[in-house]
Q: What sequence folds into this?
């Protein structure tokens, strides 16, 4: 899947929507967005020659973003849980699959060599001992 602006925006909407749906609020998001905007404006001013105003705006923006760090970590943790939960529910796609999948007993194998694990080796050794 290509990561485009549309997919990023859709993901953001999904996470904000889930947060609001499950009792969250946008209270932590507003200072974060203001801080990110101040960082952007400060860097632009610094590049255009307004070094003092640029540094001041950037520092204020960084302080706002760092203050909302627990909120951002919570969102990141929730996003990771949603991602891995979704991945577990839907399973791996055919492209990401490592070749290990359930096969019918009479189905022809598409693997070049059989898959042997340490358990297989231990089981064979156990059977030889009997």
A:
């Amino acid at each position: 899947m290509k990561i485009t602006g549309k997919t990023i925006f859709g993901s953001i909407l999904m996470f904000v929507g889930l947060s609001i749906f499950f009792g969250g609020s946008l209270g932590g998001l507003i200072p974060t967005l203001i801080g990110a905007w101040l960082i952007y404006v400060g860097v632009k001013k610094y590049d255009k020659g307004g070094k003092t105003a640029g540094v001041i705006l950037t520092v204020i923006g960084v302080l706002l973003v760092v203050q909302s760090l627990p909120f951002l970590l919570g969102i990141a943790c929730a996003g990771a849980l949603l991602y891995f939960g979704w991945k577990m529910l839907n399973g791996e796609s055919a492209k990401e699959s490592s070749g290990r999948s359930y096969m019918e007993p009479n189905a022809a194998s598409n693997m070049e060599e059989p898959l042997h694990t340490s358990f297989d080796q231990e089981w064979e050794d156990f059977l030889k001992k009997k």
Q: What stands out?
A: The mean pLDDT is 75. The chain is about 70% helix and 0% strand. Residues 94 and 118 are 26 Å apart (CA to CA). The helical segments are 5-21, 29-48, 51-67, 69-90, 118-129.
